[in-house]
Amino acid sequence: MFSQDFPTLLDEYWDGPAFDVIEHHDLDLEYYPDWKGVWDNIEPDAAGRLGAFAQEGTGGMICVWTYDDQDVMEAPVVHLGSEGECVVLAANIGEFLAMNALGWGPFALADREESPWSDQPPHEEGLEFLAARGITPPESVPDAIRAATDSHPDFEEWVYARLTD
């Protein structure tokens, strides 16, 4: 089980703009108020490095991946899909939340879309919430997705090497 403390940022986001951002952009996303476990068919040490903090509509998990004992706020955000897909979504939690406020849901991020999931304008209150905590959205979400993926190219291989079934 994931052992790092649940980040204050996620607690505050959960109590603040999370639901408004989801509704504004019609994101198929549910945030958890604490860490959830991941797949049962992954080695315990690997499961302990994946902290799920949200779930998308098909049951896929949005997690931080602390593969090298990173601080949870510096760890990449990854998607463990319900059909076994494993992709990096963002460089860290702050970037992931900023992308959501811009209208990019987990499916658009995972599918490497070139435009946001939502056709609504950015959620200004969500962006203001993040700005007050020193988090700015990326200038180009597709470029940010590529940079995060390029920084962690072995995520899928790492997961599949640790499956037990």
Q: Can you characterise this structure?
A:
The chain has 165 residues and is α+β, with helices and mostly antiparallel strands. It has one domain (8-159). Helices cover 36% and strands 18% of the residues. It is built from 8 helices and 5 strands. It has helices at residues 8-15, 18-25, 44-47, 93-101, 106-110, 124-131, 141-151, 155-160; strands spanning 29-36, 50-56, 61-65, 77-80, 86-90. The chain has a 5-stranded antiparallel β-sheet. A hairpin with a 5-residue loop joins β4 (77-80) and β5 (86-90). The longest helix has 11 residues, at 141-151. The relative contact order is 0.18. The model has no long low-confidence stretch (mean pLDDT 93).
Q: What are the main properties of this structure?
A:
165 residues; alpha+beta
Describe the SSE topology.
Blueprint: H1 8-15, H2 18-25, E1 29-36, H3 44-47, E2 50-56, E3 61-65, E4 77-80, E5 86-90, H4 93-101, H5 106-110, H6 124-131, H7 141-151, H8 155-160
Antiparallel strand pairs: 1-2, 2-3, 3-4, 4-5
Helix pairs in contact: 4-6
Element pattern in H and E: HHEHEEEEHHHHH
The number of distinct helices, counting runs of at least 4 residues, comes to 8
Q: Assign the structural class, choosing from mainly alpha, mainly beta, alpha/beta, alpha+beta, or little secondary structure.
A: alpha+beta
Task: Report the β-strand fraction as a percent range.
Answer: 15-25%
